[in-house]
Structure to design on (80 residues):
């Protein structure tokens, strides 16, 4: 869990900086540059979370949401 804190925090900080630049209306060029580069930190964050995150011990059918014991699919396996 410690490995994925930095990408999440840095990407969130990037988004807040972008929103601040857009709100201040100071530099349109900076806002466009930040917007055009925004997929890079998001892709980096997703990659790091998927690579370094801890996998769940439950399948999707066993638990729809990790922290709550809720079975999403009631009935047979075909979805009827």
């Amino acid at each position: 869990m410690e490995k994925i804190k930095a990408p999440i925090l840095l990407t969130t900080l990037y988004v807040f900086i972008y929103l601040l630049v857009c709100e201040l209306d100071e530099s349109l060029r900076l806002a466009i540059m930040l917007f055009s580069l925004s997929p890079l930190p998001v892709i980096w964050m997703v990659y790091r979370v998927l690579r370094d995150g801890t996998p769940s011990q439950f399948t999707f059918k066993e638990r729809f949401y990790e922290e709550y014991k809720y079975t999403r699919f009631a009935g047979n396996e075909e979805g009827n």
About this structure: The chain is about 55% helix and 0% strand. The CA atoms of residues 24 and 38 lie 18 Å apart. The mean pLDDT is 83. Residues 2-52 form one domain.
